[in-house]
Amino acid sequence: MDTPLREPTFLILTALAAAPMHGYGLIGEVAALSDNRVSLRPGTLYGALDRLVDAGLVEVDREEVVDGRLRRYYRLSPAGDATLSAETERLRRNVEAATTRLAERARAARPITPSVAGGLA
């Protein structure tokens, strides 16, 4: 993926970087990673996972039956790892640039206090 990742996609890939997860585990992990700013509904998550699988960024890790229901686990693929790494670096550079500009702005806004040379007369 050459374009910047949307935040939900970035968070899904980030969650999968730790370990394979099933859908409801991903919903909880994305919420935790985003301090509950991003709340994925199951339909949205599974649509995103289908797109990520089709793009080769995520792979099905395994399937198991739990309480009579199929639970599918997903993992980050090598391409997904590379994409997440590249996006993380892009975001890091953006944060670094913004931090530098804000620091410059703060320095420019500080009043300059004259120094007294040689003491008081």
Automatic annotation (TrEMBL):
Highest rank taxon of the organism: Bacteria
- Which segments constitute the Transcription regulator PadR N-terminal domain? 12-85
Read off the Pfam families from this record. PadR
Q: Which SUPFAM superfamilies match?
A: Winged helix' DNA-binding domain (SSF46785)
The entry's protein name is PadR family transcriptional regulator
